[in-house]
């Protein structure tokens, strides 16, 4: 066999046939024998390297492909070596390999596409776009390159070009599901909800379909869509096009389901980074006096997160706490960024760093605790926290629920209402409970002068129910209760936050179905926080949504002096308003069932004296209750951080819930 090229080639063809049938272990055995007899058999060396790549034995794959290149370089050898290096998280070496492939074959479209992927991870969008275009020029029907180009064009606000690229991807590969998903997401963003729903369903992406249906108030068949969504997520391990935050609205979702689906999502979506070792941490500093805290977010600007947190950042005791912000926020200038700039607090811009570089940057800062303010919300970069750039990672504020995957967070900050100790099993994180409420509030938040009702298109003498939540939080069941209230409080209107024309028209049609004149729904435009708080004073009673309740929306109503009726549920997200009401001294406005919710709202609307008493109680409590005491909240938060670090320092891996007592 050693001296007979014909026999060698026959054995190679046999191995190649096994490889093509996916019988990699059998192919490996033959290739090993071949190389033992003919150590410079380039094709056998290369194929064995590819087999090891497919078997996940990447170090061996690198070794054999490199041997093949030393004997006879080829574009395919360099390309496959680049794929191996990507699996080994060696992007610089992968880039060199792909560039070498293109040098040997300038029309190597797959190498160009992979170079685009590398530049995308580095946030070099212009270079990524260049390489995707190069791949398409080399292979005009290369659907994957069109999909990748569409994604980057979307993310760089070139929407029309993005649509055209994605349509090309679908034309050349009708089975490339991600192209449909990205395009459907663009339809949803642009208010083309029915097109989005239809396209999401086409690829069995029911979770995104229900989200688009809720955003557009397309409620026909929503119950069945919710059931299909839960069935598909609990039975599947494919989570390419899924966002856990949008699942919170699905009826029937339990906290344990939400935790477990979040874990499966994280392990699928972050598979590569979760398999990598954590970034090396700087030598730990003692925390006897100064505890080093970092906050990680994309929302350090005029955003709900900063509406809540600005006062906390201003009141942190910087003598005893080192505070640093790690931002991947868009470049903005507004009143909130100005408040940040006025602080003696460094803001580290991670927006143009890769996830690995961002994690290394954080790790070099000797933090004790990194607080992730995003979780599974939009624009998150959980790859950073997955690399563990601090010894303790805390999830707080942005995401009302468990992340499921223990590597993403060690603790979650809650309170006795949103995360009671008896709910500990609902979370992969250890509970760390604030004494009153997990949600901070800014006591410097200004309220503009109250406008007239005429200026807000409200009837002068009507009873005004309001709910300024996003429309996707509405459900047919809750909306029916609201319509029932309108029916039984004749001189009343429902004041809602406006959206695009489609969901507004659908809500008006839904009102008609419930026997209500659609003109009794009054839609308000978006305003600045200050102006919004001013107009909120015109409302008589705020109505919460369910199962996802009001968060910042609820604290806004209470700060403006408007009582809120809520229904308590099993999810973190359905307990937030109850926590706020408890902390502001109005637990009597928390109900347990739809009927209780309806009856309480009805009785308050029909009892002006009782409602006035509640408003007076709220006005008195606003300046004395824990909910709006930013100074007290900040001191409690700092005590909680110290308790978390103390428990971590003990070294016991079985952490118990931390329940901070009031002082």
Automatic annotation (TrEMBL):
The keyword Mitochondrion is annotated on this UniProt entry: no
Alphabetic keyword roster: Repeat, TPR repeat, Transferase
Pathway(s): Protein modification; protein glycosylation
Residue stretches making up the O-GlcNAc transferase C-terminal domain: 259-444, 452-637
InterPro entries per UniProt: OGT/SEC/SPY_C (IPR029489), TPR_rpt (IPR019734)
Residue stretches of each TPR repeat: 75-108, 109-142, 143-176
Pfam families to which the protein is assigned, alphabetical: Glyco_transf_41, TPR_16, TPR_8
Protein name as catalogued: Tetratricopeptide repeat protein
Organism this protein belongs to: Limnobaculum allomyrinae
